[in-house]
Amino acid sequence: MAAVTHQGGRFRVTAGAATAAAAGAMAGPEAAALDALKRGGPGAAEALFEAHTAAELRAVERQLRAGIEGKREELRQMVGERYRDLIEAADTIAEMRLSAEHLLEAVRGLQQRRARGRAGAAAQNGHRAAGVQQTVHSQEKFYCLAAQIQLLLQIPEKIWSAMESSQYLYATQLYLLCCHLHSLLQLDSSGSRYSPILARFPILVRQVAAGSHFRSTILQESKSLLKCQTVLDQAVAEALCSVMLLEDSSPRQALADFLLARKSAIQQLLNQPHHDAGIKAQVCSLVELLATTLYQAHALFYTLPEGMASDPSLPCGLLFSTLETITSQHQAGKGMTVLKEETKLSSWFKYLPPPITEFQPTLRTLAHPISQDYLRDTLQKWINMCSDDIRSGITNLLVYVKSLKGLAAIRDAVWELLTNESMSQNWEIVCRRLLDKSISFWDDLLQQLFLNRLQTLTKEGFDDISSSFREQLLLVVQELEAKLGSPAYNKHTLFEHNMASFLWSESPNDLPPDSAWISVANRSLSSKSGLCMKAQAHSPCVQNFCSALDSKLKAKLDDLLSYLPSESTLSKETEKVQSRNSAFDRYADAGTVEELLRSHCVRCVDYVLGCIREELHHAQDVLKGCTDALHNPKLDTVLFMARLCRSLGELCPHLKQCILGKSGSPENVVREPWPLKKGGKGKTQEVNPIKAKWQELKEQLLQDSLTTYRIWSTAVAKALVQSFTQSLLKGEAGSILASATNWEEIEIEEETETGSSVKSMIRLPVQPSWRVQSLLFNLCQEVNRVGGHSLPKITLQELLKACLTEVLGGYEKLSEGKQEKAQVMLPITQNRALQLLYDLRYLNIVLTTKSEDLKSSRNKQNSRIEKEIDFLESYIDPFDLDVFTPHLNSNLNRLVQQTSVLFGLLTGAENQYTSRSSALTSQEVHNILPLASSQIRFGLLPLSMSRSRKTKLALRNTEHKAQIPVPALTRAEETFHPGSLFRQLAAEDDTSAPSLFKLGWLSSMTK
């Protein structure tokens, strides 16, 4: 049955109730097995193992053990209660015996008085008084012993109560009082001396054994409390006093115990499972533990010098004041105040002897205050010892932080913790008193760890960007090199092959919906129209590629910007005021962070360019041995990479922001000597080194783009001029006639030796041969196919130079071949030499650039051209050559003017990039496309022919067209035919209405 007893103000339920409840709760196989085991028998155990599983047997074992423990506890309670009843019964029996003796003595006295009479009455009274006095003295001695035993029986209960309420110092006092009682009652059974009290009261043997375990328990609980950072200073002081009283140690040993407990707490906090608390909470708890340790070290062990007034808000010397309060002999009994208050109402308390009521704990050695030098050295050694553990532990913790935003959140939480008024109010004073210097946990321990993790995260992020770029690049190259009709071939791949099809196609996103009221200057890059992308010849593949790269850079940049001060920070004066109250400057490493971002971004771009160069080397090797380079898919790969290098700086705005960061402020600008083009000698220009870094990166991208375009231009020049050279070297009559064009008859008047004039007709070429026109036309097609209006100036110049070089090589082969194999080929006649000379001079004019950069190479080419011209002129009669030359020059000039628009970008490439700042006088705001800063494809259209000449040419063309039937086109077909708009405008030129060309509307489109 359950037994409820009241002991020391607490109710306890005996183990019998627990056993009954457990037995009632059992059901099923376990209950059956337990019943079988209780019935016993020789084979009961074997039958249990045969009939039940291991889990059921373990449950039976647990029930049996629980029942055994319950019975033991019930037996202890019963024995204790019976002994208390026995002692009370003994006291009652003793009182009854004394009462009976008194009664018997009184009866005997009456009888004696009757017998002896009055003579012996006085003597009898004196004897009786002596007996009573002796009896009272022995009774008081017994009561004193019984009160001590009663107190000894109650002390364990009081100690457990004090332990449960974390009053370890009071529990220590009770334990020391228990030890004092043992010595007074001579209960030390370990000695050879016989103890009569233990012989008469055997229960005290168990009480002595139980009291011996209190010392280790109190020490363990007191040292565990030292590891806690949330307890009050007074509680820590009492715990240290308990340790000192139990171990009889000195204050220095108490300091060592305190610091070792805090070091163990640090290791326990660092080894805490990560799922129990967040990384931020663990780091903040660690910092709080370090700060609290120094504050409590000051409050416990630091003593003020003599004459210095104490500050109530900054306590110190609590350990020594608590020790003095507990061990001072001038305040006898103060340590037993709680015991007196609880037991003063008991009837037996008055029988306790003074050594018990006036007991006071003592230390064997005096508790001298710790010197400041020793305290400083010990704390510094402890900080140095914990620093290594903290660095390695926090480094392991930060591994689980996967973003810079999380890293910034931990840093801000530490800043808020250390900046809190309760933590930072007296921090400088405490550090100066304890360590003679100021200490900052962030600057000394955490900042470098956070920077290392930030660098690792930044490096991993940009490595992921680099690897994804490489994978995407290989995928795009695979798509570009896929054959037509394969699954990898798509519409965007076709646009890369023929940019003109993309430029002249229409799509819904060509014009943004807000183009009517938002100008180009106020529109961000992400909201630019498709028409703007077409004007800059950014193909869809390049746009998608740059968009993917820019989105990854934006995500990385946004993550890193959370670690830097935001744009909405307060003014500098307010920041200075706040910095005085803050524990540390959390943005002090902003410059280092931006430099890390910049360096890793540059390294990522270098890796990207390395991947592009690797693909270019492979493509270049393939194109070198290719006979038909124009139809090789590797040429599309080269063009894609050229456009990609050119577009990275424009279509990836976050790449620029990664390089520049937040360094655009004027204080980051330094003055460096930078000569101006039109400035004086002493003038300098302010140069921002970070912006210079961005300019350097843009130049690198541009140079790689130009290098890639150079591969394309070389391949195109070789492929186009190859067919030209083959046609040029064919000396058969049919080949020569097939490439011939119409010549012009010119009537000239010459003066004879006699002074009379003679008129004669000469025939001179007015058009280049078909091979030359095919070469230029194919060259124009290739330039326009790749978006010629967006090609760099130097690329066009190099293309023209390469073509001219290849053409000269063909003419040199012609001259060498004719000299070597003149007997096989037809001889070069004067007319053929005139046509070849006309072609060469025309190609020289069209393909020659007037750039200063190519001046030396042009001089070298001029010598080669002059050599070939001399070779061709050697086949022309010198007299005829003098007559033909002026007319040839006139024909050449007219031909160049006539074909300047036909061949577009090829003729006069250097004039298409002149600045138009003088022409931009209009203040009109353009909403569709930004104005070009250089001339684009067409300038003002030349209208050099008069109306009569147009009429004659129209009649001649009509006669010529009558001989060659042309399939009729409907008006709808003509509308969509290339150049239909220009033909319609030209047809309406002869009408009475004013000409649109004369109104200049077409030329204004380019402004």
Task: Note the topology.
Layout: E1 4-7, E2 10-13, H1 15-25, H2 29-39, H3 44-51, H4 54-116, H5 121-164, H6 168-185, H7 196-200, H8 203-211, H9 214-226, H10 233-247, H11 251-270, H12 279-301, H13 318-327, H14 337-343, H15 354-357, H16 372-398, H17 404-419, H18 421-424, H19 427-435, H20 441-480, H21 491-497, H22 499-503, H23 530-535, H24 540-561, H25 572-581, H26 590-624, H27 633-651, H28 653-660, E3 670-672, E4 685-687, H29 689-729, H30 733-738, E5 743-751, E6 757-765, H31 770-785, H32 793-820, H33 830-847, H34 855-873, H35 878-898, H36 947-963, H37 971-976, H38 980-987, H39 996-999, H40 1001-1004
Antiparallel strand pairs: 1-2, 3-4, 5-6
Helix pairs in contact: 1-4, 2-4, 4-5, 5-6, 5-8, 6-9, 6-10, 9-10, 10-11, 10-13, 11-12, 11-16, 12-16, 12-17, 12-19, 16-20, 17-20, 20-24, 20-26, 24-27, 24-28, 26-27, 26-28, 26-29, 27-29, 29-31, 29-32, 32-33, 32-34, 33-34, 33-35
